[in-house]
Amino acid sequence: xxxxxxxxxxxxxxxxxxxxxxxxxxxxxxxxxxxxxxxxxxxxxxxxxxxxxxxxxxxxxxxxxxxxxxxxxxxxxxxxxxxxxxxxxxxxxxxxxxxxxxxxxxxxxxxxxxxxxxxxxxxxxxxxxxxxxxxxxxxxxxxxxxxxxxxxxxxxxxxxxxxxxxxxxxxxxxxxxxxxxxxxxxxxxxxxxxxxxxxxxxxxxxxxxxxxxxxxxxxxxxxxxxxxxxxxxxxxxxxxxxxxxxxxxxxxxxxxxxxxxxxxxxxxxxxxxxxxxxxxxxxxxxxxxxxxxxxxxxxxxxxxxxxxxxxxxxxxxxxxxxxxxxxxxxxxxxxxxxxxxxxxxxxxxxx
Length: 351
What we know:
Residues 7-279 form the NAD-dependent epimerase/dehydratase domain. By secondary structure, this protein is of the alpha/beta class. It is built from 12 helices and 15 strands. Helix 6 runs parallel beside helix 7 and helix 8 crosses helix 12 (337-350).
């Protein structure tokens, strides 16, 4: 199974995007990284020391000089269409990434996530090179329906109290009849466009509804990227605020495993489903409190913690049922959470 030869990564200076750039550059594909380098401006709690885009842009420039770096915006259709032409795959990770920012500026969130993704699909549909597309979607498309699944408390964590969800949330969970956030709605609009274009054979495309993705070159903050945020705060002796009681559980996936899932689709998209829940699955889960224990084990440090109210759109438990990705893409996670955290800590200390 050979992967694509000419790959465009939107959001190529982002955390996930930069790993896609690196993956394909290491495979000797021709890679274009497109980014508008705006992320630091859109996250209220981010600061320059955690400027993911600037760090990763420089990292790519220094380590992969053959990669073409293009500063552009997915909202500019004419420019985007010119860039897409000639590629045989598009990894679409550019987006507005935070629920909090979507609540304060829903218009920007819509224009980037919904309209920007529509532009990517239209550019792919109209390109003579006929690229396949993967979209970085999110578990937030399920909205508050996730919180209707009964949960029970078990020590320092919650877990699903319904046998139907023992392996996590499947792609068939309803997206309807519930409260969403603007972020969830804009990503769902993009997700639905991907499904529509795929079903009509306009573009070979798939939406990957991601759970918690973590790994090296991620600078998290309170708005987004909590695994990195907790690890960096612990390493820097900076106090942490937990929203809720810390027993909320997520499945966690190391970023390089995510890119392998993208590639499994892009390398052979013919006849594949257009939606995948992707994360660590039921075998790779942690609560916030459990993660603090793991960090203490790996770093010998435990930072000061305070607690605050639950935030809008938060979920007590979200775990991806990754059965479809296993079956259709012959993919599963390879990096355990313990190993992934070790890699992150080593990278941050040596960066």
